[in-house]
Fold DNA-binding transcriptional regulator, AcrR family.
Amino acid sequence: MSLRAQKTAKKKEEIVKSAISIITEKGYHNTTMEDIAAKLLMTKGSVYYYFKDKHDLLYQSYKMLLESSINTVADIQRENISVEDKLSKVMTAHIEYLIAERSGFETGINPEQFFEGNKLKSILDLRSKYASEIDRLIIEGIDSNVFAPVDVKIVRNIILGAMNWVIRWYSPEGEMRGEEMASSITKYLLRILKQND
Amino acid sequence: MSLRAQKTAKKKEEIVKSAISIITEKGYHNTTMEDIAAKLLMTKGSVYYYFKDKHDLLYQSYKMLLESSINTVADIQRENISVEDKLSKVMTAHIEYLIAERSGFETGINPEQFFEGNKLKSILDLRSKYASEIDRLIIEGIDSNVFAPVDVKIVRNIILGAMNWVIRWYSPEGEMRGEEMASSITKYLLRILKQND
Amino acid sequence: MSLRAQKTAKKKEEIVKSAISIITEKGYHNTTMEDIAAKLLMTKGSVYYYFKDKHDLLYQSYKMLLESSINTVADIQRENISVEDKLSKVMTAHIEYLIAERSGFETGINPEQFFEGNKLKSILDLRSKYASEIDRLIIEGIDSNVFAPVDVKIVRNIILGAMNWVIRWYSPEGEMRGEEMASSITKYLLRILKQND
Amino acid sequence: MSLRAQKTAKKKEEIVKSAISIITEKGYHNTTMEDIAAKLLMTKGSVYYYFKDKHDLLYQSYKMLLESSINTVADIQRENISVEDKLSKVMTAHIEYLIAERSGFETGINPEQFFEGNKLKSILDLRSKYASEIDRLIIEGIDSNVFAPVDVKIVRNIILGAMNWVIRWYSPEGEMRGEEMASSITKYLLRILKQND
DNA sequence: TATGAATGAGGCTTCATTCAT
DNA sequence: CATGAATGAAGCCTCATTCAT
């Protein structure tokens, strides 16, 4: 990648990160392009230089979030630890990421409402990919008798729902630090899966 | 309540129910007053007769949903059954209600984003009330040694997140009926609380 | 048509007529919706109540112009006069209409540039219809030996070009009245067709 | 002219020619500076090196077209042929030029709409000059009894309108070649002027 | 000369809301 | 009570133009 292309990529990422946090805070429709630009000390026009339109910015932001999540899981999958530890790490990472990036996209933006056609498909595909990574861990755990047999789809969605909900109630000003809370949630969720012997 | 007042109340409820389902489907900002009116074969003007403005309609809809939930819990609280059964019933009812009414308000509408001042306070109070009903059941269960000791706030939020998430992934066209799924989710969530003796 | 529908139709026509004259004067792109509304002492919003968007207003204006031309020709076709008189009347009417309505659509708006898809097709169809009415008169004249044999398509386009050009150079402030000029142009154009015996 | 000046002049002409054809095709307002630059594999910035602004590019393009037309007429005026042949040649050249350069400026761009002040005056002067060259030929023809007496202004405008209209309907894919059509139109237009003895 | 990133004015469009009938 | 025409504030987006490198 040329220097220029790098610079452009960096700028795009900067905008995306900023957009994610404002949109999480105020909601997509209550966030104006002006808001997004202003937060970065840019003008609207500049944002449009990097993104076709507001919707495109949302799409690319969403995609980046999902891809980042998938990468995290893939990294963890490669580690040489037990299934339980892997799932544990995946969950903790997920929650900590939400908190750190202040991203409420998973709860605040319903892909079916915001996207259509190829864009929707692409988002749903990424979601599925992430979901199946979790499923894989669950199944592996069941197969190796570490986890009890469960309805994988339902349990996975319980896990996702519980994790994504965090952004709605966790406050950094509270008594618990993010990591503590992440590991606490993880611990409780694992109880659903653990053999009861 | 006079006949007229009754009629008005009925009409209001009709509008609210319709609004909830459209807003759940398309999102608040993608739903126009025209849409809401049209679905009921009314005109915009009529809706304004019953509700001060769009925001008021949202507020009253949200309130109605929460109050209905709270009533349900209260009813269950009064029943003469075990704590575990009570919590179980509350969760099942919550999920089935979401599915039946096709309401995605809990996930789709973040009160902090949509309301402010007294309205926000009133919504948050109702939420708290509902939350503390659940907390009460959890605590009661712990006190009576039916449930393991847990961080009540965290577990309660895990439960809420997992339940509310349902509207995002459950499809009535799928193989599982709503009640089945509700009881399945309930069963798994209870594992978090159950003593592991 | 109900009273209300009549009123709406009238208002639409009012807007269209006004739009035609402003667009002719300033050009489509130099005319703002504000301009069009202001000229009628309306607000932008009102115009949008009657027309989907600016382009739709252009389309309906263009269509109305063409339909009106076609009706005029049809009326003349039915009259009990000679072919030459018919063609003569058609040309005179065309020119006088341009001047009276101050419409420069034919020269100022190239359908291929402004429309596409079905709208383009619909405009081109109307144009064709008008063109073939003129062709019919030319052919009739040739068949009855009143006109000399000519390449119909070319002569028709000469006639159209010469007539439409009027809006570009005729000034009502000049020495010649519109009708005079219309009949003068008509007279000259007929020379192209007249037998030279 | 220095080598550098020559190079600059050449580049300017290149840009102008390219601009004329894009603007003819898409219209001035639908043509962006980006479009013009891209077609020449330049960047916007470069175009601005040669032309003050978009409007200046339009102006110079229009001027170049008119000057070229005037030069053509002047050349023909100097030829040692009959008045009729001169007018004939002028018209044929005019039409062939429009077709060859795909220039629809005469019909697509109304000077009154696009220019003002000195620029408008300068364009109108060139137009007048061109018009009076045609007038001169007509008058000469009348004086020498080759042409019938006519209202010169009207006939000249008929001729101009008929010629300029060509760009709107002539398609190079059609059955007739450009030269054929040019001479055909010329032939018909001359009938307006020819003595009918 | 050439580039491409940044700017900002201007125009289109939507839609909640009002109000006379 | 109901209607539908009218309003106008607010936000998206385009693109000519500038300018540092």
Residues 42-46, 49 of chain B lie near DNA strand F (CB under 10 Å from a C1'). Residues 117-143 of chain B form the longest helix (27 residues).
